[in-house]
Design a protein that fits this description.
The chain is of the alpha+beta class. Helices cover about 35% and strands about 10% of the residues. The protein has 2 helices and 2 strands, in the order H-H-E-E. The longest helix has 17 residues. It starts with a helix and ends with a strand.
Amino acid sequence: MGRGRQKAKHTKVARELKYFSPDTNYSALERELSHPSDGEPDYSKWIDDDDESDSDDVIVVNPELLDSDEPQKKRA
């Protein structure tokens, strides 16, 4: 497909999305936003309990080892 036809297709899709107005159930939306659900999911299992991050690792490079492929890791 040529660039002109491709651009025309994208423009058509963008115009359809811009002017598309689905029927909205405002009363259901109001109920959902005004009353928090009792069955809210438990997100605590996704919280990382480990306060330490891997950013504590410091890479120490000895100038004599610069020809080596792997830098030496040392805990700070």
